[in-house]
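Ops channel
N.P.: pipeline sanity check, posting one input/output pair.
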């Protein structure tokens, strides 16, 4: 995906850009799955990749229907812990652990949340601004799930 600022032109162009972002996320997960040896890491990455495919499919359906189905958009964002600041961002290697895979997935999801926030801002006043806000809210749900898993397994109590 290009590093340009988000621009909102038409519904179709905005949705296509979101599809490209979801596909890039899926490809990042797929590359990592093929590289890591640890089975726990593979499972974490596979689950996250399937979420990306689910979003991509929902967006492709939106091109046909003119809107995103209710299962993929939430009214409000889910609070997250912002663990991306705690769990450094690094590329995965063959010896990556489940902890490394979770950190990797947290960063990719955080990027998705930011992407949808930027798209909603770029499309302010247009009908698709609300769509991007709602999809971004759904991404916060995925981010929270990953952060909860990280906290449960790798952060000390209290």
């Amino acid at each position: 995906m290009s590093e340009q600022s988000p621009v909102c032109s038409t519904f179709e162009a905005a949705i296509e850009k979101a599809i490209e972002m979801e596909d890039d996320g899926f490809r990042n997960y797929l590359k990592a799955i093929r590289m890591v040896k640890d089975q726990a890491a593979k499972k974490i990455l596979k689950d996250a990749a399937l979420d990306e495919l689910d979003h991509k499919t929902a967006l492709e359906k939106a091109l046909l229907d003119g809107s995103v189905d209710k299962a993929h958009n939430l009214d409000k964002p889910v609070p997250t812990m912002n663990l991306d600041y705690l769990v450094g961002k690094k590329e995965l290697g063959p010896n990556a652990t489940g902890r490394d895979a979770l950190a990797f997935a947290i960063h990719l999801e955080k990027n998705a949340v930011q992407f949808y926030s930027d798209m909603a801002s770029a499309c302010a006043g247009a009908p698709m601004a609300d769509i991007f806000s709602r999809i971004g809210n759904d991404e916060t749900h995925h981010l929270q799930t990953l952060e909860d898993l990280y906290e449960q397994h790798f952060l000390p109590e209290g």
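N.P.: looks fine end to end. The domain at 11-154 is CATH 1.20.1260.10 (Ferritin).
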